[in-house]
């Protein structure tokens, strides 16, 4: 059917159809509005969810990253509104990168040097064991190798923070946001469990303060849980666990850079040249520069504490936004197999850390 207009014919299928014309007008209106979309709707929704997670964590003592994931997943329906997409994407990417950069203010080269050569080599061995155990677990569970790389790297370095950084390199074209969200849930749960159980196991194995500090600092994923678990054993173990854990955090930059070199370009895009692949993501370069500055300049403790709070807030916004953008149907489809790489990496890191603690310290 065609419609007649004073200026000529409309060769449209909806000519003379009032409903069709309204439909076209609405579509044209939507397309006209999209370029003017702002960050506010998505960022505001993410901020409200993150604030709820922070309140729950403060009042009930649950890991804040885990609560951010759970609150974000519960608010997943918000992402059905396209007006939130730009803000949620901004929070999941830009807030993540800024949070990683600011995290560099928590580590110094002196702290790494205080660990000593033998414990540092043992720590590297624990991290390697965790990484390859995750890749093996991903293969056993029928998951992609990218799921193993994500789980292994996050377990080996510093939990959810490292997982966020690694996912920025891996990309959602290789690994779905649903798989990523489930991996972070598994890491957060494993960290909470380990913080409660590992000090008891260390006492059961009659470990010294130094041995217990190495075991806890080398095998618990998230920074807060590792430090808390160390001090749950003793003050000396807590101090040593902090040094061991911060040494793992300092390796975030090199490991993410190696992962970027190994993976190269996007899954379906052209592979960049070797020299191009050697270039690190800008936020990892900035993290290393901030770490070097923190190692050479005397940063006031008050400023470092503010920076730590800012880093936690930015990473919480990033993980909440990522959870909001995750598709629930893919979460259900992934099921329990999605956390197998985290389980195998957790078991391997504990076994390796316990063996080195007993044999070398």
From TrEMBL:
Record key words, sorted: Cell membrane, Membrane, Transmembrane, Transmembrane helix
GO cellular component: plasma membrane
Topology with respect to the bilayer: Multi-pass membrane protein
Cell membrane as UniProt keyword: yes
InterPro entries, A to Z: UPF0324_pro
Residue ranges of the TM segments: 62-82, 94-114, 120-141, 148-168, 180-201, 246-266, 278-297, 303-324, 336-360
Localization per record: Cell membrane
Domain of life of the organism encoding this protein: Bacteria
One Pfam family linked to the record: Cons_hypoth698
Family under the similarity heading: Belongs to the UPF0324 family.
Protein's name according to its UniProt entry: Putative sulfate exporter family transporter
């Amino acid at each position: 059917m065609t419609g007649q207009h004073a200026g000529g014919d409309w060769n449209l299928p909806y000519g003379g159809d009032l409903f069709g014309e309204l439909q076209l007008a609405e579509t044209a209106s939507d397309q006209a509005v999209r370029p003017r979309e702002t960050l506010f709707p998505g960022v505001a929704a993410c901020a409200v969810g993150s604030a709820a997670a922070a309140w729950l964590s403060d009042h009930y003592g649950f890991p804040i990253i885990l609560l951010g994931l759970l609150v974000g997943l519960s608010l997943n329906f918000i992402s059905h509104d396209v007006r939130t997409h730009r803000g949620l994407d901004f929070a999941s990417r830009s807030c993540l990168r800024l949070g990683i950069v600011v995290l560099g203010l928590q580590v110094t080269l002196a702290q790494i040097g205080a660990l000593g050569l033998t414990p540092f080599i043992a720590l590297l061995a624990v991290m390697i064991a965790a990484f390859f155990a995750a890749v093996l677990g991903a293969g056993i569970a029928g998951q992609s190798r990218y799921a193993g790389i994500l789980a292994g790297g996050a377990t080996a370095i510093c939990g959810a923070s490292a997982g966020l950084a690694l996912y920025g390199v891996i990309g959602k074209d290789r690994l779905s946001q649903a798989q990523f969200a489930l991996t972070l849930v598994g890491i957060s749960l494993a960290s909470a469990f380990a913080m409660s159980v590992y000090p008891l196991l260390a006492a059961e194995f009659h470990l010294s303060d130094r041995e217990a500090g190495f075991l806890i600092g080398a095998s618990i994923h998230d920074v807060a849980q590792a430090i808390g678990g160390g001090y749950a054993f003793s003050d000396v173990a807590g101090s040593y666990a902090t040094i061991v854990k911060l040494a793992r955090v300092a390796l975030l930059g090199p490991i993410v850079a190696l992962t970027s070199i190994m993976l190269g370009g996007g899954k379906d895009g052209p592979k960049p040249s070797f020299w191009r692949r050697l270039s690190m993501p800008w936020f990892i370069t900035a993290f290393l520069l901030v770490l070097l500055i923190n190692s050479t300049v005397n940063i006031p403790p008050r400023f470092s504490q503010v920076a730590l709070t800012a880093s936690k807030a930015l990473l919480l916004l990033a993980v909440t936004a990522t959870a909001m953008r995750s598709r629930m149907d893919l979460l259900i489809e992934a099921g329990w197999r999605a956390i197998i790489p985290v389980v195998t990496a957790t078991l391997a890191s504990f076994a390796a850390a316990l063996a080195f603690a007993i044999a070398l310290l």
